[in-house]
Design a protein that fits this description.
Blueprint (H helix, E strand, L loop, with lengths): L30 H11 L2 E4 L7 E4 L2 E4 L2 E5 L2 E5 L2 E3 L10 E7 L12 E4 L15 E8 L9 E4 L9 E7 L2 E11 L2 E6 L17 E2 L2 E2 L10 E4 L5 E4 L5 E3 L3 E3 L5 E2 L5 E5 L5 E9 L4 E3 L3 E3 L5 E5 L5 E5 L6 E6 L5 E7 L8 E3 L2 E7 L10 E8 L4 E9 L9 E7 L2 E2 L1 E3 L1 E3 L14 E2 L3 E2 L4 E8 L10 E8 L1
Parallel strand pairs: 20-22
Antiparallel strand pairs: 1-4, 2-3, 3-6, 4-5, 7-8, 7-9, 9-10, 11-12, 12-13, 14-15, 16-17, 18-19, 21-22, 22-23, 24-25, 25-26, 27-28, 28-29, 30-40, 31-39, 32-38, 32-40, 33-34, 33-36, 33-39, 35-37
Length: 468
């Protein structure tokens, strides 16, 4: 009678159906070793290199470091785990098994560490099917508090290659190997001129990196083609294409007007022609005639009879914009527009500078309103203001206000510090509160404060901005 309960275990010899595993003090050698060897023989091996699975005892706790195991030839990672003193059986001379479970037991997680506890003194705990045994831990009431005896069942197997061989006259002859390194998996034939054959059964396909290769050879002088769905097949040549020792293409079958440097354009679904007006000589692209750009061909570049080049748009009330990115990647734009005071085109978006003198060059400055004024010649977005003098003030700062139609445009007024010739170095920089200067608005300038012992001379104010 077959002992069906003892499958996958090392047991006492017997014919009954009862579970008759070998036991300590009754069967030899030591059952813990035998049980570990049993699992190793099934391909469950603990790989210990460096600090992998190191066991540290802190007070009543047992801390097991992370490591790797081999289960059925496959590497698996195992995380660190801490067992409390209460996780250990208090049986005197109780032998626990520290295992990595495969997750088949109810309530257990795959590749986690667990303790299998003994049922009686001097007995090694039983393992579960699929366990990989890391170590045996002995608890003894005679030992000092917190102390445990540990026996590892590990190997330092760091590589996992495969040797393939055949036997002839009881001689082992290797024919190939499968090995790995840091950047490849190598399948190598070790016998000179030996083939490496991969042959699926029946209609099975060879699938290489997701591509299904044909199960039969194609005809002579055919090529492999993918269908875009991971399927490969053989195809022959087509119109104008001959496949032999080389691939030959007769372009005359689908092209006309072939001239050196002419660029090809389509003349239908399967035809091309060389274009006289569109050429490339490996250095310059040449357009003989006009160039039209845009979905409705709104922008044109043409040559007139005089030889002048015209850049123009074909739609009414449209602009032409030029954009250039600065060092930070922000796009700076300038716009050509016909919406101006005259029939001429102006350029918007570029920096404009207006300089206004608030005094002559030799007279001491004096406070007062309306020291200078003008009407804006166009609308402007103001970005910066600056003041300068040819004689620096001494004893006090010069303070200037700028007004649009009688209202200041500065929340912090423009100033030149004592002994300085420009507002660029002022301790209190000007802050613009109104950046939008309207076309034809009245701009006036006030001097609110001058220097003390030296008033300052030759005051000018510069406005920076762009047309809008």
């Amino acid at each position: 009678m077959v002992d069906t309960e003892n499958i996958h275990k090392i047991s006492q010899m017997g014919t009954g159906g009862s579970l008759a595993v070998i036991t300590d003090e009754a069967d030899f050698p030591h059952t813990g070793l035998i049980k570990a060897l049993n699992q190793m023989s099934s391909g469950n091996i603990v790989v210990k290199t460096g600090a992998d699975f190191d066991i540290n005892q802190t007070g009543g706790n047992i801390i097991v470091d992370a490591g790797k195991i081999l289960r059925n030839g496959m590497y698996h990672s195992v995380n660190t785990k801490t067992f409390a003193d209460t996780d250990l059986s208090t049986l005197d001379k109780g032998y626990h098994l520290l295992v990595v479970a495969d997750g088949r037991e109810v309530g257990e997680t795959v590749n986690n560490l667990y303790l299998r506890t003994p049922t009686a003194p001097n007995v090694v705990a039983d393992f579960k099917l699929g366990d990989t045994i890391v170590a045996m831990i002995e608890y003894s009431s005679a030992t000092s508090a917190g102390s445990r005896l540990i026996q590892f069942f590990t190997t330092n197997k760091e590589e996992n290659g495969l040797s393939i061989a055949y036997a002839s006259s009881n001689v082992y002859t290797e024919v190939g190997s499968i090995t790995g390194d840091a950047d490849s998996i190598d399948i190598v034939s070790t016998i000179t001129n030996a083939d490496i054959n991969i042959t699926p059964n029946g209609n099975g396909k060879i699938v290489l990196d997701g591509l299904n290769w044909p199960i039969a050879d194609g005809a002579a002088n055919t090529l492999l083609k993918t269908d875009g769905g991971a399927g490969l097949s053989f195809i022959a040549g087509g119109t104008g294409i001959t496949i032999g020792s080389d691939i030959a293409v007769d372009v005359s079958d689908f092209m006309s007007n072939g001239v050196n440097n002419y660029i090809l354009t389509a003349t239908g679904t399967d035809g091309f022609q060389g274009e006289t007006g569109l050429q490339y000589d490996n250095s310059d692209l040449k357009v003989v005639g006009g160039l039209q750009v845009g979905p409705a061909l709104q922008f044109t570049i043409t040559e007139h009879n005089s030889g002048d080049i015209y850049l123009s748009n074909t739609g009414n009330d449209k602009t032409i914009e030029i954009a250039v990115k600065n060092g930070g990647g922000a796009s700076k734009r300038a716009v050509f527009t016909a919406d101006t005071h005259s029939d001429e085109v102006i350029l918007l978006g570029v920096e404009e500078i207006i300089i206004v003198s608030l005094s002559d060059e030799s007279t001491d400055l004096a406070t007062g309103t309306g020291k200078a004024s003008f009407h804006m010649p166009y609308a402007m977005t103001l970005s910066k203001v600056k003041a300068s003098v040819n004689t620096a003030p001494v004893g006090a700062t010069i303070i200037v206000d700028i007004n649009e139609n009688g209202t200041t445009i500065l929340s912090t007024k423009l100033s030149i510090d004592a002994s300085e010739n420009t507002s660029e170095t002022a301790a209190s920089a000007a802050v613009i509160s109104d950046t939008n200067l309207a076309d034809n608005s009245l701009i006036t300038f006030d001097i609110d404060q001058v220097g003390g012992s030296t008033k300052g001379k030759g005051l000018k104010v510069t406005l920076y901005g762009k047309r809008v």
